[in-house]
Design brief:
seven-stranded mixed sheet, single chain, 116 residues, mainly beta, globular, 0% helix, four-stranded antiparallel sheet
Amino acid sequence: QVHLTESGGGLVQPGGSLNLDCAASGRFLRILAMGWYRQIPGKQREWVAHITNDGSRDYADPVKGRFTISGNKGERGVSLQMNNLKPEDTGVYYCRLRLPGGEDYWGQGTQVTVSS
C-alpha cells in the first residue's frame, strides 16, 4: 500500500508564495514520476507540473515561470514552490505518484487560497 501526504497549503495574498510538499510512504522501489494537479472551483482537475525519475520537469502553461517542482527526500517526495500567486491559482492541489508498473496513487489534497 502506498500513501501520499500533502502539506503546505493555506491562505496567501496575490503576489505571495507558498511551498507544497508531498511525502510518499509504503512499499515501492522506484518512482516513474510524481506530479501536482489542482481542482479549481467549477472546473475539472487539471495537471500543473510533473517530474520524472530522470529529473525531467514540465509545467502547464498557466504556471510556467512561477511554479517550480522538485524531487526530495531520497526521491520519495516532491515539492512545488509557487511564486507570484494569483487569485486564479485558488483550488485544491493534489499530489500524484506513478510507479513503473503503471500503478497510480493520489494524495488527499491541500487547499490553496489566493485572496486579498
